[in-house]
Amino acid sequence: MKFFRDHFSRLISHAAGKAVIFLLASGYLAIAIWGCTSISQGLQLQNLAPDDSYVADFYEAEQRYFAEYDFQVQVVVHSSIDNKQKADKVNELIDTFERHTYFRGSDLTKSWLRDYEDYAADNGYSIDYTDIFTTQFDQFLQQTAYAEYSDDVRAEDNVFCFILMSKISEET
Fold it and tell me: Is the pTM of this model over 0.85?
């Protein structure tokens, strides 16, 4: 206590001591502001796994091969498609999303309705939109290329979804 009373108090009361304290506090504030403005959001999942874990290898491979792809956005629609106009409105909704700046466009969109319409045109039959989920739709889902859509459609509940790829990434 004698040190602070006799020496330190005189040091910080002197004009030079005040200037040094002011400069140190200003430097600390400047570094703090720079740190706050340069902080980035995100959590790297590979940092949560041990280095010798297979999960760490998985995240490393995912980062190496799939980093260019951002997050998937799943849009769920709770409505029946019982005529061509409703199907066209759904396709128009998808087009609107794809044109928005937050999405990548049509190249990575997964839409069962578009693929089903293309499948029907390629196989030479027209879709009866009043009963869209017919045996032809079941045949469509049995194709290997379209089997993934079986989870996207709940015909009995009049619920379906489509998936868009966003441009929002962890680095943004």
Answer: no
Tens of pLDDT, residues 104-153? 777 778 889 999 999 999 988 888 888 888 778 889 999 999 998 988 88
Question: What does the alpha-carbon distance between residue 47 and residue 155 come to, in Å, rounded to a whole number?
Answer: 42
How far, in Å, are 44, 47, 136 from residue 80 at the CA level?
Answer: 40, 44, 18
Mean pLDDT of the chain: 85
Q: What is the pLDDT of residue 6?
A: 84
| Cβ atoms of residues 112 and 146 within 8 Å | yes
Residue type, 69: Y
pLDDT tens digits, 56-75: 888 888 788 776 666 778 88
Q: Check residue 57 and report its DSSP letter.
A: H
Q: What is the pLDDT of residue 172?
A: 44
127-to-8, 26, 83, 110, 130 alpha-carbon distances in Å: 89, 72, 10, 19, 9
Q: What is the 3-state secondary structure (H, E, C) of 78-141?
A: ECCCCCHHHHHHHHHHHHHHHHCCCECCHHHCECHHHHHHHHHHHCCCCCCHHHCCCHHHHHHH
Buried b / exposed e along 25-63 (16+ C-beta atoms within 10 A): eeeeeeeeeeeeeeeeeeeeebeebeeeeeebeebeeee
